[in-house]
Amino acid sequence: MHVPIVPAVRRCCWALSDLTPWVLATGISSHEHMWYHMVMARREVLVQLDDDLVEQLDTLANRLGTNRSELIRRAARAAITAEDLASADRAL
After folding, report:
1. Residues 59-74, mean pLDDT to the nearest whole number
2. Are 36 and 28 in contact (CB under 8 A)?
3. How far apart (Å, rounded) are the C-alpha atoms in residues 24 and 81?
């Protein structure tokens, strides 16, 4: 099950000057981003990708002001959220 960002952390309001491209894309401030990753345990997982896909991921990550790992984490969360929503729709 997808675990959203802790609501207490989301209370904070940050100035527009604090925003980065990643923040603009996600709506999460850089301060919240650091807090989120400090409390979330991580496990390294080996994923095999072809060279073309890695290049496309790196290009997109660079354009969004993030890195490949964060981009893949976002994609994984998006896939889980999409499936959760589709499952809820099927249940209705």
Report:
1. 96
2. yes
3. 20
